[in-house]
């Protein structure tokens, strides 16, 4: 069975101030063309179809167009909801859409109920594990303490239990939206840390033939059977070195597989440039970036006049401008924002405790802070979905 694995479309999202809807529509057309030309047997979409729980109308219309084109193609499609999606909204009409061969799996309680497809070698069971917010699903899975590993492990127990009832030659595919240990994150993914832990070990998924992951935006291989497709388009400059693609997976009768990367259309390359303004404007080696979307970091000791206007004379698609003067590390002019760069909420809170009290937080206090941050994030998720 030939699978086309994609994820993290983030329909409705922009790239800085650039509307990406046209590029997203081009990707959908590319997806349909690849599915037709490469004779794909099933398309799997591993979450974050939309960029937010209540997407703009134009994004909903593009998703509707994608569903119709996939259904008209006659290629079965299995989709799950991600942490950016509203599972309940995305799953509206799933029963009816199911009849058209588009299978939306957004209900955590149904993780052990597969979509069954068949090829010349027999059955293939597709299990959809939508994004599982630990605080919201732990009771349903009978898990005492909320955590990504515990709820995913409970979900996979249900998958393996159902798989054990199937014929011995039944192959299995799991779609999941999670941060798996060994994956490389970028700046455009929403933090899903719970209890100080974001990642889960790949061993959680043992016992299935292929795991189609979503959430991380870089295409990457965790193991031969556990892979991220990544997002089809860039959503932050941290993805400047990404090769945006999908996985074409051939799953043969004995459960072995081969994987091929299929490139996605590139609307415009990304470039991150750094240096003094005059150097950036004069450096002939930067000519290759003149048609790219550019993030420029200026290192001038004194902020130059009209830097964005001057940069855009050479790099007309400059989207981001930052200042990082080259100073001695002990220079008191280092900004508060620079001191916080790359630090998470938990680290910042613990630093604050140290600053005001003169002693760091103990283990109990760190646990209290983690619980508070987890509760706030879970509450935000509930509020977003309820809007």
Q: What does the secondary structure layout of this molecule look like, with pairings?
A:
Blueprint: E1 2-6, E2 14-15, E3 18-19, H1 21-37, E4 42-46, H2 57-73, E5 77-80, H3 87-90, H4 94-98, E6 102-105, E7 115-119, E8 122-129, H5 134-137, H6 148-163, E9 171-177, E10 179-180, E11 199-200, E12 210-214, E13 220-223, E14 226-228, E15 245-251, E16 257-263, E17 270-275, H7 277-282, E18 293-298, H8 307-314, E19 318-323, H9 336-340, H10 345-357, H11 363-386
Parallel strand pairs: 1-4, 4-5, 5-6, 8-9, 9-12, 10-11, 12-14, 17-18, 18-19
Antiparallel strand pairs: 1-15, 2-3, 7-8, 13-14, 15-16
Description:
The protein is built from eleven helices and 19 strands. It has helices at 21-37, 57-73, 87-90, 94-98, 134-137, 148-163, 277-282, 307-314, 336-340, 345-357, 363-386; strands at residues 2-6, 14-15, 18-19, 42-46, 77-80, 102-105, 115-119, 122-129, 171-177, 179-180, 199-200, 210-214, 220-223, 226-228, 245-251, 257-263, 270-275, 293-298, 318-323. The mean pLDDT is 91.
